[in-house]
Specification:
3 domains; alpha/beta; Alpha-D-Glucose-1,6-Bisphosphate, Chain A, domain 3; TATA-Binding Protein; 435 residues
């Protein structure tokens, strides 16, 4: 991971870390290497500002810009297949005061470490390939991105007869998911489905406490399923027909059981149930969809995902597509009760938590964490992204977020007693590192 790009592109507070100067510099670095660039943005109030800065940088170095307007991230990734690269302006599930930049390849995968390092070196060394006035780029409009994405998903999923409630969180999926499901044949009740960069209905991250209204409507409408997206549509979580929240961890297990028999690429923070479900191999990577899609390309494995609620199906795209995943889950719900499928899975007790720290202390905390982990006696230690300490009865992971100044803790165990023990060990380590 580079210092400019985190585990999911560049993100920061608008007009503090995420500035027009930075956006223009990144645009210039991209425009000097990629001639035809499509740009999309989610609904955030700063989207136009960042888009203008990126576009001016690209055109100053001779690149042409194709503006797709407000689109979800997976829609932009699909549109990128007709260009040299794509740029999505989004901070995904982060609060509205954040924004970011994520860059996509024509095959739908996000830029890998080497590609991001190339861009960062140009920005850091100010080695922009500015052109003279005769050769500056031009800005065009890219039309039909939403329609094209709907057509692709409709062809892959086919007709669905189900009743579904959709909560788009006032994000970018407001303009596609309800429409897609209706066109597939569903009866759709939609809430928070008007694009609004202030996210008035709920926060962009679809956590259980943010989805109380969705739960109530699913039960009142006797719906087969409830769907909830994050701000840019690369994530999805659901409410089952009993009104229960089914988060990314359980959805990853459910989708693995159905689509992962040939192997799964997943992240270091995913459940040990994945290993038990897969008939083929499980390949773990660092946290971040860029690492999942890169490993899928290298191994030829066709399904990958993260416990955050991002899922990648190679036959659709190498971009995590919460809209396609939503359509698949609604299809499943039309044929079987989601609650019965989830209840049939072996789900182990787990815990997820985080500790904030001052951004300037990141390297100090990383060093202290490494020292603390040396004292832990475990059966196996994975160090590709933070530290995953594995024991006979469970595991814990302590890692620093790639997008925020947070130390994240994930714990999973075979029993509640083991969970309590491992949670105590890991949280005490975190507190010592941050104090």
């Amino acid at each position: 991971m580079t210092s400019l790009f985190g585990s999911s592109g560049i993100r920061g507070l608008v007009n503090h870390e995420m500035t027009i100067d930075l956006a223009q510099a990144v645009g210039a670095a991209i425009g000097g290497q990629y001639r035809r660039v499509v740009i999309g943005k989610d609904v955030r109030t700063s989207g136009d500002m960042i888009a203008c800065a990126l576009s001016s940088g690209i055109m100053s170095c001779g690149g042409d810009v194709y503006d797709a307007g407000i689109v979800p991230t997976p829609t932009l990734a699909h549109a990128t297949r007709d260009y040299d690269c794509g740029i999505m302006i989004t901070a995904s599930h982060n609060p509205p005061e954040y924004n970011g930049i994520k860059i996509w390849n024509p095959d739908g995968s996000s830029f890998d470490d080497d590609q991001m390092e190339d861009i960062e070196n140009v920005v850091r060394l100010l080695k922009f390939k500015k052109v003279d006035w005769r050769s500056v780029g031009t800005k065009f409009t890219h039309e039909g991105a939403i329609e094209s994405h709907i057509e692709i998903i409709s062809r892959l999923v086919g007709p669905i007869a189900a009743k579904v409630v959709v909560d788009c969180g006032c994000g970018a999926t407001s303009i596609i998911t309800p429409r897609l499901l209706r066109e597939l044949g569903c009866k759709v009740v939609s809430i928070n489905s008007h694009p609004d960069g202030f996210f008035p209905g709920r926060l962009p991250e679809p956590t259980e406490d943010q989805l109380v209204r969705l739960k109530d409507i699913v039960l009142n409408e006797h719906a087969d399923i409830g769907i909830a997206h994050d701000g840019d549509g690369d994530r999805v979580v659901i409410i089952d027909e009993k009104g229960r929240f089914i988060g990314g961890d359980k959805l990853l297990a459910l989708l693995t059981a159905m689509f992962g028999k040939g192997g799964v690429v997943t992240t270091i923070d995913s459940s040990m149930i994945i290993d038990e479900l897969v008939g083929g191999k499980v390949v773990r990577t660092r946290v971040g969809d860029a690492y999942v899609s890169t490993m899928m390309k290298q191994t030829g494995i066709e399904f990958g995902g993260e416990p955050s609620g991002t899922f990648i199906f190679a036959k659709n795209s190498l971009c995590p597509d919460g809209i396609y995943a939503a359509a698949l889950l609604v299809k499943i719900a039309s044929e079987n009760k989601i609650s019965e499928i989830v209840d049939s899975l072996q789900i182990y007790p787990s815990f997820r938590g985080s500790f904030n720290f001052e951004r300037a202390r990141r390297r100090e905390i990383e060093s202290r964490l490494a020292q603390e982990i040396e004292k832990v006696k475990c059966d196996n230690l994975l160090t590709m992204d933070g530290f995953r300490a594995e024991f006979s009865d469970g595991w814990f992971l302590i890692r620093l977020s790639g997008t925020e100044p947070k130390m994240r803790i994930t714990v999973e165990a075979r029993t509640e007693e083991a969970l309590t023990r491992l949670k105590t060990i890991s949280t005490e380590i975190a507190r010592r590192c941050i104090s």
